[in-house]
Amino acid sequence: MKMYRSHIMICRGTGCTSSSSEQIAQEFEKQLKLHGIDEEVIVERTGCFGLCALGPIVIVYPEAAFYSLVKPEDVEEIVKEHLVKGRVVKRLLYAETIEEDRIKSLNQVNFYKKQVRVALRNCGIINPENIDEYIAFDGYKALARCLTELKPEEVIDIVKRSGLRGRGGAGFPTGLKWEFTAKAQGDMKYVCCNADEGDPGAFMDRSILEGDPHSVLEAMAIAGYAVGGSQGYIYVRAEYPIAVKRLSIAINQAREYGLLGKNILGTGFDFDIELRLGAGAFVCGEETALLASIEGQRGMPRPRPPFPANKGLFGKPTLLNNVETYANICPIINNGPEWFASMGTEKSKGTKVFALGGKINHTGLVEIPMGTTMREIIYEIGGGCPNGKAFKAAQTGGPSGGCIPADKIDVPIDYETLTALGSMMGSGGLIVMDEDNCMVDIAKFFLEFTVDESCGKCTPCREGTKRMLEILDRITKGKGQEGDIERLETLAKNIKASALCALGQTAPNPVLSTLQYFRDEYEAHIRDKKCPAGACQALLQYIIAEDKCKACGICAKQCPVSAISGKPKTPYVIDQGKCIKCGACLEKCPFKAISRG
Amino acid sequence: MKTLKDLEEIRKRTLDTINLRKDQSGTRIVVGMATCGIAAGARPVLLAIMEEVEKNDLSDVIVAQTGCIGMCKLEPIVEVYRPGEEKVTYVKMNPSKAKRVVNEHVMQGKVVQDYTIGAEE
Ligand SMILES: Cc1cc2nc3c(=O)[nH]c(=O)nc-3n(C[C@H](O)[C@H](O)[C@H](O)COP(=O)(O)O)c2cc1C
Ligand code: SF4
Ligand code: SF4
Ligand code: SF4
Ligand code: FES
Ligand code: FES
């Protein structure tokens, strides 16, 4: 690669791409040419920087100037001022990166300060479509070391000692899983990667695949060496076109360099990887369903045991790990298991990537050491809830998880504490809720998701979750009955005990967890027909206060369904039977006589 | 097919061109290493800086290379980026000047005014 004086890194993650970052990249290329400096300055397309809410993001090195919310029409100014004249365009810098008119280093910015990037180490720093850049930052060093210096048992021992646990949900110790697969008898073994990522709001795995695909390929090859497998499959959802494209490019480049295929690095070790595209059913992320889907059958779970380690793909011993799990492997080999185990808590080592979403200022992707508190994530990294609203709870573990209420905000986040709180780590979706969120409504949202995604194979899940949803639905509509809470609890218990796979077994969790911490909200809906958060439309009422109404008639003109009537000099009234709760009248009343309750 | 040695070469070669992107917490010393820079003696300057950084155990200092800075007649050029400070551009450098910059500017925060582009102009 040629030497360039300045590198313009443009985020081409899914978030920024949807806000036209490719157009910006092309505009940069055009403007650089126009100003005759296209031989001195290079434009690189990268993966996600994490601060997707501020996208499109452009970082210019060597200054590390962090431009946010860049528009194509801003490009000319950046080229003219910054790249030609050497004057950073302060107006476009992410405000938090400037202090007293100078650029702060990114690691001192609140959003990045507490983060430790292991799985995301290369995201935003390299061009994922250029294998040389991956190699430059120690890429394929770990594989080379394993193949030339370590025995398979030694590789497994390193992974075991690191304390790494599966990042796909259940948190099973990765080294143990490798050992089981290595010890299983079979003439052929497979190494698979779960990139199905079905949790609503989750995009950790997508970002790793988009920003650093080789980190997963290299780790899979190492896994193949450790367990004795020579064929790998990555099961990735077809709705991730950028990830699929970058993975295909990466696989081809690795093959060209002889880092995949036959006789890797001349060591006699063979390993190759193929992609399998999933249609995006949530249940296909479950391991037995995923393997069935790779085999070309319908993606439905089957009872375990036998576990995939013994009888997996095509009946052969199979190792299945999550994308982020794999992304941790090479740094563990390169830096040593002790380094990895020095981060985190007693039983949860290393870091975890979370996708911050919902009512939070900095939605995006963050990687933090295990043991970081929810408060640090939400307030210090995430910048708190927008509009000064009060934080109410955070949902982790997606549709299988539960919520952490505001009074538990100081607990350290790791596998054990989240489980003890009735939630779970899950794959890393973290949805923040503020005072305006109704917890019954949230539970309903997740249950709607599981009802839609249930594969239908077993009755408790197929029918039971539907019954639960019906009950939740009537509670939010003000038609809840005494005994509904108990009915929900009984159903939940039965489904958990009898569903075939973890989708069903965990589906009641969001309901149980909101009941545990917000039972009074359920009761208010059922007994008083009130939604304390003011979120359930059906339970809202718009009321005109007689003493404040000046009978101006403005509200009646606003009402789209003519629900408001009145005569001059007497207070106006809203016909609750007709009102569709649009809120138009409340906004327009000049005397603030209308209230919602 | 690549050998281990090939990989190592790709690593070194590419790292030289892209490590100016890595880790922004510490000071970065960037040396202009395009054709004219090298012709003007940028390589001994780079080596001197790396040696000085190593000798003083400056683990959070990154030495990076860059291409044409556009001021060929002032080469070798060295730019120093200390976090939270304006970039300082040193021109017409040689190994002993470079050592002084590492000792005074990078380590003690005192800009060596005599060598800066401002002094030249
Ligand atoms: C309904 C359901 C969906 C799942 N979806 C995913 C997924 O999208 N990605 C994933 O890695 N694991 C998912 N899992 C967990 C996998 O079954 C499996 O435990 C995991 O891929 C193992 O990898 P790990 O040990 O590296 O975490 C899901 C499990 C269930 C029950
Ligand atoms: S629990 Fe639900 S998703 Fe799992 S097998 Fe049964 S019906 Fe299918
Ligand atoms: S707009 Fe307000 S003051 Fe006027 S009639 Fe309606 S409620 Fe009364
Ligand atoms: S809330 Fe909307 S529908 Fe209801 S009375 Fe006001 S304007 Fe009419
Ligand atoms: S997609 Fe650009 S910062 Fe996340
Ligand atoms: S080639 Fe050195 S400044 Fe132009």
UniProtKB/TrEMBL annotation, chain A:
List the SMART domains hit by this protein, alphabetically: NADH_4Fe-4S
Record-linked InterPro entries? 4Fe4S_Fe-S-bd, 4Fe4S_Fe_S_CS, NADH-UbQ_OxRdtase_51kDa_CS, Nuo51_FMN-bd, Nuo51_FMN-bd_sf, Nuop51_4Fe4S-bd, Nuop51_4Fe4S-bd_sf, Thioredoxin-like_sf
Q: Where does the record place the 4Fe-4S ferredoxin-type domain?
A: 540-569, 570-597
Keyword 4Fe-4S belongs to the record: yes
Q: What keywords are annotated for this sequence in UniProt?
A: 4Fe-4S, Iron, Iron-sulfur, Metal-binding
Gene Ontology terms, MF aspect: 4 iron, 4 sulfur cluster binding; FMN binding; metal ion binding; NADH dehydrogenase (ubiquinone) activity
Report the protein name in the record: NAD(P)-dependent iron-only hydrogenase diaphorase component flavoprotein
Presence of the UniProt keyword Coiled coil in the record:
no
Task: Report the Pfam families cross-referenced here.
Answer: 2Fe-2S_thioredx (PF01257), Complex1_51K (PF01512), Fer4 (PF00037), NADH_4Fe-4S (PF10589)
Q: What is stated as this protein's family in its record?
A: Belongs to the complex I 51 kDa subunit family.
Which PANTHER family does the protein's record reference? NADH-QUINONE OXIDOREDUCTASE SUBUNIT F
UniProtKB/TrEMBL annotation, chain B:
| Record's keyword annotation contains Membrane | no
Query: InterPro entries in the record, alphabetically?
Result: Thioredoxin-like_sf
Domain of life, source organism = Bacteria
Listed A to Z, the keywords are: Iron, Iron-sulfur, Metal-binding
In the UniProt record, the signal sequence range is none
Q: Name one GO molecular function term.
A: iron-sulfur cluster binding
Which SUPFAM superfamilies does this entry report, sorted A to Z? Thioredoxin-like (SSF52833)
Among PANTHER family, the record links this protein to: NADH-QUINONE OXIDOREDUCTASE SUBUNIT F (PTHR43578)
Name this protein carries in UniProt = NAD(P)-dependent iron-only hydrogenase iron-sulfur protein
